[in-house]
Amino acid sequence: MLKEEEVLQGFFAGVCCSMQVFGEAARGQGFDETTARRIASCFGSGMEHAGLCGCVTGAYMALGLKYGNSAPGEADKIALLKEKKAEFERRFAERWGSLECTKMLGGLDPARPEELKAAVERGLFQSVCAPAVCDACAILKELDEE
């Protein structure tokens, strides 16, 4: 399981939140972590528009990898995926107050350089982003064990 310090090191080396969540979950499912991180690389910082948190989009990819359907007529898989997705969203929002990057960062948009700088100066990557990555991974693990 990822540790906050590892997550922070990743952030400052260019490995965004979605890459870390999907990479960690994919590795746990026997999927290549490097490929997973590449797939997730456009989804950090709320898809670089401060929208849906990259922890959430990374988790969606992980849920799809594990529970998603791949052929027509797999209604049972679709139902299970929707159930797991809804439960992930509920737990994450309960812990973080939102699924949206900007709301989690107190109104700052990390896609804007000046607001990203403010987020760094306020220590939000340490107090919000790194713990959110770890929580997203923990929630995925909880869902897998249920």
Give a quick rundown of the structure.
This protein is mainly α. The chain has helices at residues 4-12, 17-28, 33-40, 44-50, 54-67, 75-96, 101-104, 113-121, 124-145. It contains nine helices and no strands.
Structural account:
The longest helix is centred in the middle third of the chain and has 22 residues, at 75-96. This protein has 146 residues and is mainly α. The protein is built from nine helices and no strands. The mean pLDDT is 93. Helices cover 73% and strands 0% of the residues. The chain has one domain.
What's the structural blueprint in terms of helices and strands?
Layout: H1 4-12, H2 17-28, H3 33-40, H4 44-50, H5 54-67, H6 75-96, H7 101-104, H8 113-121, H9 124-145
Overall mean pLDDT: 93
Helix content: over 70%
Number of domains: 1
Any idea what the shape is? globular
User: Termini separation (Å)?
Assistant: 18 Å
What is the N-to-C order of secondary-structure elements (H for helix, E for strand)?
A: HHHHHHHHH
Structural class: mainly alpha
Instruction: Please outline the major beta sheet.
Output: none
Q: How much of the polypeptide forms β-strand, as a percent range? A: under 5%
Keywords:
mainly alpha, 9 helices, globular, 146 residues, single chain
